[in-house]
Amino acid sequence: MKIESGQVAVVTGGASGIGYALAEAFASRGLSVVLADVRPEPLGRAAETLAETHAKALAAAGAGVAAVTTDVSDPDAVQALADTTVERFGRVDVVCNNAGVVGRQAPMWEQTPQTWRWLIDVLLLGVANGVRSFAPSMIAQGQGHFLNTASAAGLMRLPLLGPYSTVKHAVVGLTETLDAELRAYAPAVGASALCPGLVDTPLVETSAAIRPDGAETSEPAAPGEDGSRKPIPGEVLTAAEVAEISIAGIEAGRVRILTHTDSFRPARARLAAVLADVDQAAASRDGSAG
Ligand SMILES: NC(=O)c1ccc[n+]([C@@H]2O[C@H](COP(=O)([O-])OP(=O)(O)OC[C@H]3O[C@@H](n4cnc5c(N)ncnc54)[C@H](O)[C@@H]3O)[C@@H](O)[C@H]2O)c1
């Protein structure tokens, strides 16, 4: 689907990081943007900044910005977000189910039940809630796209982030099935799983600040003397780079959008290992049949 002026985009987890960068990419192209986030103050500030920064592009397109405080793990709140979007802007073209948190780095047997529950509720059911509330409008319109933020950790194993990696695999699987279902009902409605590697965002800090009782997160790294976050080793993209790659991926109709070159090799290695298992199973069935 071509992303263009006059369309309406919804972005969950829109107060910060990848979500805010997606919102900027949409606003700069003249789309109306509905930002949703569980943190009301950062959300309000983000919506103001977005409207100011992109005032010209938004005014030229007759587009607007709205903010709706939303906990994506609450199905009623996500339905209210969908209702508000259609009441305010009349339609919805792109839904970015992007809100996210990350748990503590530890082996899986040390992860608390509350950590599992939290990640499943926000990262997986948050996406499912978005799909339930927004898909009917898109199908009725005959046009639309879901961008579900998974992770490179949804395409390969990631020891010590077991719950996160497990749930991100589920988001990739959900999105592949969703794309097939949507296209069967309306060929111009589809879905993409965004699979970034490391992105320079405050994900660890935000997660630590909002984790529920019993859920665990890693300690955020101490900031440098100038207040900046400590550089992370490895390939790190900016949220703005990820947003631009995402839009290109939506326009190309990619079901999985990979962003980081350092993900290509491990993703390929996992697929090769799966293929080897398939080939071995097929060979052993052939052998037993003969
Ligand atoms: N930063 C990375 O390296 C990276 C890599 C791969 C995938 N991701 C994914 O990208 C997405 C965005 O994360 P980010 O890195 O931009 O971090 P971020 O912390 O900057 O943004 C996440 C936003 O989600 C919001 N949020 C958390 N729980 C919510 C809830 N229940 N309901 C609504 N909003 C909620 C937070 O308040 C925050 O504003 C997440 O799904 C994350 O898992 C991040």
Automatic annotation (TrEMBL):
Gene Ontology terms for molecular function: oxidoreductase activity
Transmembrane segments: none
Ranges where the Ketoreductase domain occurs: 7-159
The entry's keywords: NADP, Oxidoreductase
Region (Disordered): 209-232
Alphabetized SMART domains for the sequence: PKS_KR
Family from the record: Belongs to the short-chain dehydrogenases/reductases (SDR) family.
UniProt protein name: Short-chain dehydrogenase
UniProt lineage: Bacteria, Bacillati, Actinomycetota, Actinomycetes, Frankiales
